[in-house]
Write a structure and sequence with these properties.
The complex is a heterodimer of chains A (about 120) and B (about 110).
Chain A lengths: L3 E4 L2 E4 L5 E7 L6 E7 L6 E7 L5 E2 L8 E7 L2 E6 L8 E8 L7 E2 L3 E5 L1
Parallel strand pairs in A: 2-11
Antiparallel strand pairs in A: 1-3, 3-8, 4-5, 4-9, 5-6, 7-8, 9-10, 9-11
Chain B lengths: L2 E5 L2 E5 L4 E8 L3 E9 L6 E6 L5 E4 L2 E5 L3 E6 L8 E9 L5 E3 L3 E6 L1
Parallel strand pairs in B: 2-11
Antiparallel strand pairs in B: 1-3, 3-8, 4-5, 4-9, 6-7, 7-8, 9-10, 9-11
The chains are: A mainly beta (about 120), B mainly beta (about 110).
Chain lengths: ~120, ~110
C-alpha cells in the first residue's frame, strides 16, 4: 500500500509557541491531503482538506487562523498550530489521496502535548 | 445527512472465537466503503475498499462484505495480534467526503 509519513512523531511545547507538523506521501502524488485530530478513545475528527496549490477547506468549528495548513507540493502538506494552548494537546493524523476520490492512506500520527 | 454507525462499541473474544463487526450506513450515493485498522498511538492502516453491494474482499483472517445498508467485517479464528480498533468509513458520490464511524475496539484474549 501507499506510504505516508509524518514528522515529528511526538512533540512537547510550551503554551504560546507554534508547532509545525509535516505530512509526506512517499511513493505517490497526493492531490488531496487531510488533517484529523483524535482524542483518546474517540474516532477521527476531520479538521481540514487541502488540495495541492489551493487554500485548505476547514471544517466547521476549526479555526483557520490557529491551524494553518499549507499544501505546497504533491508530496508535502504542513499543519502549523499557532500559539498553542493545553487544549490543543491531541493526536494529529494526516492522510493523503491520489485523485478526487478513493482510498485515503494515513500517516502514523503526531502526538502534541502543550504544557 | 450521511451517517455511519459501528457496532458493537467493544468486543472481547477468546483466541480462535470467530465473530463479526457491523458497520451500518446511510448515504445519498455510495462511492466506496472503507475498513481500517488502528492500533493505539498509531494512524489507521488501510484494509479494504468495497464499492458495490455483494462485493467481498479477504485478507488473512479478515473478510469484508457489503450490502446496500451495511458492511460486515468477519474475523475468523482471531489471534491476539488482531486486537485493535476497526474503523469503517463511507465516501459519498456527491462530495467525496469520507465519514468515519466511531470504531469497534476488538480485544482477543489468548
Amino acid at each position: 500500500g501507499a506510504v505516508v509519513s509524518q514528522h515529528p512523531s511526538w512533540v512537547i511545547c510550551k503554551s504560546g509557541t507554534s508547532v509545525k507538523i509535516e505530512c509526506r506521501s512517499l511513493d505517490f502524488q497526493a492531490t488531496t491531503m487531510f488533517w484529523y485530530r483524535q482524542f483518546p478513545k474517540q474516532s477521527l475528527m476531520l479538521m481540514a482538506t487541502s488540495n495541492e496549490g489551493s487554500k485548505a477547506t476547514y471544517e466547521q468549528g476549526v479555526e483557520k487562523d490557529k491551524f494553518l495548513i499549507n499544501h505546497a507540493s504533491l508530496t508535502l502538506s504542513t499543519l502549523t498550530v499557532t500559539s498553542a494552548h493545553p487544549e490543543d494537546s491531541s493526536f494529529y493524523i494526516c492522510s493523503a489521496r491520489w485523485g478526487r476520490s478513493g482510498t485515503q492512506y494515513f500517516g502514523p500520527g503526531t502526538r502534541l502535548t502543550v504544557l | 445527512e450521511d451517517q455511519v454507525t459501528q457496532s458493537p462499541e467493544a468486543l472481547r473474544l477468546q483466541e480462535g472465537e470467530s465473530s463479526s463487526l457491523n458497520c451500518s450506513y446511510t448515504v445519498s450515493g455510495l462511492r466506496g466503503l472503507f475498513w481500517y485498522r488502528q492500533d493505539p498511538g498509531k494512524g489507521p492502516e488501510f484494509l479494504f475498499t468495497l464499492y458495490s453491494a455483494g462485493e467481498e474482499k479477504e485478507k488473512e483472517r479478515l473478510k469484508a462484505t457489503l450490502t446496500k445498508k451495511e458492511s460486515f467485517l468477519h474475523i475468523t479464528a482471531p489471534k491476539p495480534e488482531d486486537s485493535a480498533t476497526y474503523l469503517c468509513a463511507v465516501q459519498a458520490v456527491e462530495n467525496n467526503d469520507m465519514r468515519f464511524g466511531a470504531g469497534t475496539r476488538l480485544t482477543v484474549k489468548p
